Amino acid sequence: MTTYRYRQVPTFGRGTIRRFHTNVSAMKHLAAHDFEDLLQCAIPVFEGLLPPEHNTIVLNLLFKLATWHAYAKLHVHTNNTLTFFNSATVILGQSVRKFQCTICAHYHMTELPNEYTACGCREAALASKQAGPVNMLQKGKSNPNPKVKALNLFTYKYHALADYPNTIQQVGTSDSYSTQPVSDRFVIILFSYNLILQGELEHHRAKRQYPRTGKKKSQMLLNMTSQEAQECLIEKVTAVLAAKWNLRPWRA
Predict the structure, then answer these.
(1) 3-class SS shares of the chain: helix, strand, coil, % to 5
(2) Is 111 helix (H, G, I), strand (E, B) or coil?
(3) What is the dihedral of CA 58, 61, 65, 66, to 10 degrees?
């Protein structure tokens, strides 16, 4: 039902609201605009799907999520908007916990059919590598039912929501920086401002260093550590020279 309703939502503007996927629940590798579009159009989609007492809780939660998202995406903030943002964050946390205790406890949720199929294929492939096709058939029958799914609030992304107002007050609005960059040039800029940050794409650094190692388990870690020490030394020298010659930091 939700997939059908999302498909009925018309597009809006030039890329503001795009045409939704034929199966919203099965979407993979979602971009930021996909999550944004799903949230902005969620209230009319979910309205009336559940009993009245549950419908009210779900719609209130969606409205508070949209309100929090609007504050987080503001390009200009004042002291008043930051105060409202703090209040919206507290109210959102209360609504999420209420949703978990009432709605999630009342409904039995399992993984999607495509997830269950993919999990079965992975188990069958692993069993076939270990002990042949006979074990593969037995392994496929060992888990006949989909796994039970529950809302997990013990995640970093959920607990990081409370840090947004303070971060915006200290660093600036969320459109003025990115948590993804991890290039050497960007690290040099951060070091020149006495900032030590690791981006979401930090794993790219290890992937870049691995081909320059001996690719042996006994030496790989030592070689990658040596490369990182050399990069840190070069970054420190660059920062010192930039401060000595009054060079303006630049970004790649």
Answers:
(1) 65, 0, 35
(2) coil
(3) 70
- Can you give the pLDDT at residue 136? 45
Q: Which of 111, 242, 130 is nearest to 188 (CA)?
A: 242
| CA–CA gap between residue 102 and residue 90 (Å, rounded) | 19
* Whole-number CA gyration radius for the chain: 24
Q: Look up tokens 């059908």; give the residue.
A: 4
**Given phi > 0 = left and psi -120 to 50 = alpha, else beta, which region is 246?**
left
Higher pLDDT, 135 or 155: 155
Instruction: Choose between 192 and 221: higher pLDDT.
Output: 221
CA distances from 250 to 45, 105, 113, 188, 230 (A): 46, 52, 49, 9, 21
Q: What is the pLDDT of residue 119?
A: 78
Residues in Cβ contact with 140 at an 8 Å cutoff, skipping those fewer than 6 apart: 120, 123, 124, 127
pLDDT in tens, 162-190: 999 998 988 888 887 766 655 544 444 44
